[in-house]
Amino acid sequence: METFEWIIILLLGAALLTMLARRLGAPYPTFLAIGGVLIALVPDSPQWTLDPHLALALFVAPVLLDAAYDTSVRDLRDNWLPVAGLVVMAVILTTICVAVTVRWLVPGVSWPVAIALGAIVAPPDAAAAAAIMRQVGLPHRLLKILEGESLLNDASALLIYKLALMAVVAGGLSPNSFTPVLLLTLLGSVAAGFLCALVLRPLMGRLEDVSTALIVQFVTTFGIWIFAERIGLSGILTIVVYAMTIARTGGVRMPARQRVPVYAVWETVVFILNAFAFVLIGMQLRPIWERLSADLRFEYLVTAATVLLVTILIRFAWVMSYNKLIRVRIARHGFHPRRPMAQPTVGGAVAISWAGMRGIVTLAAAFAIPETLPNGAPFPYRDLILLTAFAVVLGTLVIQGLTLKPLIRWLGLTDDDPVGHEVKLARTQAYRAALATIEKDTTLHGIILRKEYNAAVELNESDGAPTGDTPGGPLRREAIAAARQRAIELRRQGVIGDDAYHILEEELDWAEMSAGGARRS
Questions:
Q1: Interacting residues of 495 by C-beta distance below 8 A, sequence separation 6+
Q2: In terms of Cα–Cα distance, which of 460, 465, 453 is closest to 426?
Q3: DSSP readout, 122-164?
Q4: Residue 308 CB: number of other CB atoms within 10 A?
Q5: CA 428 to chain centre
Q6: Measured between alpha carbons, how far is 7 from 1 in angstroms, rounded to an integer?
Q7: What SS3 state is found at 372?
Q8: Burial level of 360, CB count in 10 A (0-12/13-18/19+)?
Q9: What is residue 105's predicted lDDT score, i.e. its pLDDT?
Q10: In angstroms, what CA-CA distances link 461 with 356, 404, 435?
Q11: Global pTM?
């Protein structure tokens, strides 16, 4: 019963911290990180433990699938060069520099353990940065670069992490031994993710009940991850390829009445996983801190602070260097993208550099470090890894997370809303297709619908029409709010019963969402 009570308290606390974060315009993971520190300071807080082998699958698999499902393949392809630089070079440079720093500060740490720590803190989590950047209207191209990086850098970082752990267990790895593993993991994971999507797509298309669909989605997510890891592949890469494939092929077949609640549940699950990742890592910090001597505490704190500084500086060094090379190339050869997009600028590079907050993947990878080696010996410097990983997450979320919004506003980064223009184009074409379908219908309903769709086409084709809202969206929502209030009054007065009210409520809910009410401000 005590555990259940703590879960309720922690979930309520996470919700309140999230409300405070959104009121202040800050990313909610920042406040969850602060909450994790507070948990570590509570004397009578519970000491929950989690199987380290379960950590990555539990925390990373659903979060990654949710992000990969929404990824724009077109935008990822358009920005493949800067994304690849962040995914490969930035991760490798961060891993190497952190490993060298840790070896210098704590000479007893072996190279495989130091590299594992470097890989743990290497991948930024763009969820926090993206939440801020949408609030301030960051140029679309920069947002897509960050989202692409966040999606793929987990795979590159955790692949290095996996090889480093293998080296710790085996006492070392030679290039001849890890090269085949690397190639098999990369190629096999891509193939496995694609094949899983093809095999499961018919099943997903037949699921009409929301509850059943959600259960199957979670089961397949964890099942694919477990299957990939069991046969020696990368669970992350397999999940990413699976989600992107299923979104492009099977996702379009999902009916609206299923898609709305499914998306809401996934968003809630991602939030809960973030909250419990910070809670669990916070619970590990107090016993770690208590069993360290005063000298070790000072040494570990200095190491954690230095690693935090190195992770921030290395990202700056790579992004600014790459940006300079690209701008020199543009100056010589011009800027000729396949689609209109913002040209690289120094301000954009500064924003990308400062958007390197770490998050749930770093926490889960640190937590997944086994407590003991196969021979029964304790995993070397596990306490240092956990303390440093949390310090990097907390430091980047607080320092960068709370200053990113003012920085972007100071830089004055804007664009001409390319997504809004594409929405207008797509909306016009979609309504024209709808008009063509009902063109010969002479019933009253057909006449009314043709008037509505013709008005929508005319509004979207006019220069003064809003790009980010449905035609007449604000007016529709105002009218729907009045209709909803009247329905509530009728139920309160006993004119209609709850059955009739709920049917009308559902109709008004769908109408409100179609008028843009489903989008978060």
A1: none
A2: 460
A3: S---HHHHHHHHHHHT--HHHHHHHHHHHHHHHHHHHHHHHHH
A4: 21
A5: 31
A6: 10
A7: strand
A8: buried
A9: 94
A10: 40, 36, 15
A11: 0.80
Give the mean pLDDT of 183-203: 86
Q: How far apart are CA 47 and CA 167, in angstroms?
A: 31
CA 272 vs. chain centroid, Å, equals 13
What is the amino acid identity at position 462? Answer: S
Contacts of residue 372, defined as CB under 8 A and 6 or more positions apart, other chains included, come to 378, 379
Q: Any idea what the Cα angle at residue 57 is, between residues 30 and 43, rounded to 5°? A: 50
Residue 479 makes CB contacts below 8 A (sequence gap 6+) with: none
Other Cβ atoms less than 10 A from the Cβ of 67: the count is 21
How far, in Å, CA of 284 to CA of 279, rounded? 9
Residue 115 has pLDDT above 60, yes or no: yes
Distance of alpha carbon 30 from alpha carbon 18, whole angstroms: 9
* Mean pLDDT on 124-153: 74
435 near 450, Cβ under 8 Å?
yes
Q: Rounded to whole angstroms, how far apart are CA atoms 367 and 120?
A: 10
> Which residues lie across from 372 on neighbouring strands?
378
